[in-house]
Design goal:
Elements: E1 2-6, E2 19-24, E3 27-31, H1 48-57, E4 62-71, E5 81-82, E6 86-90, H2 115-126, E7 132-133, E8 137-141, H3 149-157, E9 162-164, H4 167-177, E10 180-190, H5 205-228, H6 230-233, H7 238-250
Parallel strand pairs: 4-10, 5-7, 6-8, 8-9
Antiparallel strand pairs: 1-2, 2-3, 4-9, 5-10
Helix pairs in contact: 1-4
């Protein structure tokens, strides 16, 4: 139930849209559409910095994101849910640090996502009737175009499991703000380097859309389960502690 629409301004411009705040399964949650209300913002133009700043400004400290991905591996089938634990960044030209104009910060990203949040997402997915993988490396490409066959094969050879256009720098901005962040990736198709009748080709669009709609329905069920576990999720303060400790060691003002 939506109880409030929050419009915010940040030092980094406007976020993608209005933040909707309300109750889900008896817990207070906030929702911000990454691509805008009508899905008009392409991946390389998403105001990632403003989005995360806006969420933090209204008190959000834990984010569970969703994203749609293509599979780079035959065994990761369309319809599967993946809980990434690593990313490989192939984007370029994206403004990817809050501190670039102030003081140099070298944040560690060895563990790319909050393990506490990942574990709860994984637990809830396991309880559902869906195909899933609780680990995976997401290759983040610039977009908005899709990969060539050669690029797709290269991503797999380099250790990628799934491919997406939005995970970077979003997950890094969360880290820099001290927000615990996890993501649910849903597979709609095989990337073009994996021969299949379900891929982003003209003749496969209808099949991909069917998978997408099934995934969307299952994702909504998962989000409800995660909302019910929100008190457990918010027990984690690893991101806040990590960033505070870093700034202390680096003798940097974290305000």
């Amino acid at each position: 139930m939506i109880s409030e629409n929050v419009e915010t301004k940040t030092p980094y411009g406007k976020p993608s849209g209005i933040i909707r705040v309300g109750e889900l399964c008896g817990e207070r949650v906030a929702f911000l559409p990454r691509h805008g209300e009508d899905h008009t913002i392409p991946p390389h133009k998403v105001p990632y910095k403003a989005n995360l700043s806006a969420l933090k400004s209204i008190g959000v400290r834990h984010v569970i994101a969703t994203c749609v991905v293509g599979s780079l591996r035959k065994e990761i089938r369309p319809g599967a849910f993946v809980v990434p634990d690593q990313f490989i960044n192939f984007t370029w030209g994206r403004d990817d640090t809050y501190r670039v104009d102030r003081q140099l910060v070298h944040l560690q990203m060895a563990e790319s996502y909050c393990e506490h949040v990942r574990n709860i997402i994984s637990r809830e997915i396991k309880a559902m009737n869906v195909n899933y993988r609780i680990k995976g490396t997401v290759v983040v490409i610039q977009g908005p175009r899709f990969s060539t066959v050669a690029e797709s094969k290269m991503f797999a050879l380099w250790g990628g499991d799934i491919v997406n256009m939005t995970q970077y720098p979003e997950c890094f901005f969360a880290r820099e703000l001290g927000i615990c962040y996890g993501v649910v990736a849903t597979v709609t198709d095989y990337d073009v380097g994996v021969p299949s009748l379900i891929s982003m080709r003209t003749e496969s669009v209808d099949a991909v859309l069917k998978v997408f709609h099934r995934n969307t329905k299952a994702t909504l069920s998962l989000i409800q389960r995660l909302a019910s576990a929100s008190k457990e999720i918010t027990d984690c303060v690893c991101a806040t502690n990590r960033i505070a400790e870093y700034y202390k060691l680096a003798n940097i003002d974290s305000s």
